Amino acid sequence: MKIEKVVCQILRTGDVDAKTASCQDSLLVRVITDEGIEGIGEADSSPEVAKAVVDAPLSHNIACGLREIVVGENPLEAHRLWQKMLRRTLYFGRTSVTITAMAAIDMALWDIAGKHYGEPIHRLLGGRQHERFAAYASSLFGRDGEETADIGRRWREAGYNAVKFGWEPMGTSEQVDIELVAGARDGVGDGTVLIDAGCVWDARTALERACAFAEYRIGWLEEPLRPDDSEGYAWLRDRSPVPIAAGEQECGREAFRPLIDRRALDVYQVDISRNGFSEAAYIRDRVEEIGARLCNHCYTSPITVAASLHWLSTCRDAFIFEDCVEDEPLRHELCVEKVQAESGWISVPDRPGLGVTLDEDFVARHVVAESQ
Question: Per-domain residue ranges for the chain?
Fold first, then answer.
C-alpha cells in the first residue's frame, strides 16, 4: 500500500471572532492510499500556515513540504515517516507549526492503519486502560464573576461535575482574577473547578494567585506562565498549594522535554492535533516515568476529540478528559458521530481507526481553500 494523495482543506464556518477559541476554523488533512483507504487528521494551528507547510515544494533536502516527503510511502510506517518528516523540515520545523502539520498527517496515518487492520487506534497504541472518562466542560470565562457563575451553573445542570474556565479577562488585575475564580466556584458548587490563566503572569505573581485561589479549592491552575518558562514552572510547582498544569502549547517531544526533565508540572496536557500519536506515545511514556499525570488538550473538532480519547485511554493514570463545549458548528457537525460527554462521562470509540466519519456535506459547505 502506498500514499497516493495528501489533500488539505481549510474549513471555516463563518466570521472568526477575536476570542481564544480554536474551534472556529481548522485544517483538515486527508491522506489517500492507492488501495482506496483514506485517513483523516487535523492540525490545531493557523490553518493557512499549517497548510503551507504541507504544500511547500522542495527547497533542498532539509527544507521540503510534507506532501512531497510522504507521497509514495507506505502509510503503515508512521514512526519512520515521522522521523523522515522531522529530518527533511529541519530548517523550518522542530517545535512549532511544522510539528502541528506533521501531527495532522500522523493522525491520518494511524487512522489508515486502524482501518487497514480493522482495529481502533487505542489497540495499535498498546491497548486502552480506560473505557470512559469523567469529562470536564471546557469553556472561556465570562466577562465578570457573575457571568462566569452563570456559565458554571449551565454546565453543572448539563451533567458535568467539573468545569474549566479560561483566558480573557484573567490577568487584568488581582481583583478581577479573584472575582472570576469566586464566580466559578459559586456556579460550579461542590463540583471541580479548573482554572486556565492563559499565560498571563510572572512566577511570583502566579504564586500569589495560586495561594489566593487555593481558598476556592481549585483542581488545578493551568498555564499561569509563558510557555517557554520551564524554570519558572519548576519553581512554581515546588511552592504552589494547588496543582500546576500546562502543555497545550507544546509541539513535539523537544518542546515537552524541558518541562519533563525538570519535573515542572503536576499535569501534562498533550494535544494530539499538535503532536500526533507518534510523539504523544513517547511523551506519555516519559511523563509516566516521572510519576506525573496526563490529560488531553482539545478545543477543536470531533476528529481531535476522538484522537484524544484513543490516546488518553492508553495512559495509565489518566483521570479526566477535556471536553470542549463551545457552541460552534465545527465542534458538533463536522462528523456524523457525536463525540461529546453524556451526563458528565465520555466513552472511548471502539471502531476501526479514529472511529469517526466526516459529514461530507458539511465539509463541502465550509471549505474555503483546498490543495492536493
Answer: 3-118+359-371, 124-347
